[in-house]
Amino acid sequence: MGFFKRLFGTQQEELPVEKLNIGIILGSTREGRVSPQVGNWVKELADKRGDANYTIIDLAEFKLPLLGEPGGDASGAAAWSQKVAACDGFVFIAQEYNHSITGALKNALDYLREEWNNKVAGIVSYGSVGGARATEHLRGILGELLVADVRVHPALSLFTDFENGTDFKPATVQADSVNQMLDQVIPWSKALKTIR
Asked: What is the pTM of this model?
């Protein structure tokens, strides 16, 4: 650029950089769930960064029937497809149910294919052991869908990050972990956007 500036005496105009769209997916649909508390906390932390457009995506709003089963609202499946396709990356709020992810999240993942491809995901999990086993299952599923998951994994304990197992009160260190995860999600999302 220095050569052209000397040659023509003008600066090149820099094009505005379009912000990434990162979806924060609430992975539980059952009544009494605490995932909205966790998702809102992650969004609040993420919005302070100003490095992307962060949006809560609540699986409960799409009312997806079991894949391959009759019933349900076809418009919900179409809206789900559009919502995921519009994202450059994701943060999954993953609850551990019986050593794995929820049936609702697995069903929602299975509903789509190309909409997931060549994107990035961070995972924030919770459970009796921080949701670690759910995260390991989710990583395998994401790999099959060509979603690259980042290494940093905020793991929330039902015993130390929730009061009475229902009121989310995260330890201070957990916010640092979320920011470290996003420090990986954002550059990877930028990189993978170039091959889509």
From this structure: 0.90
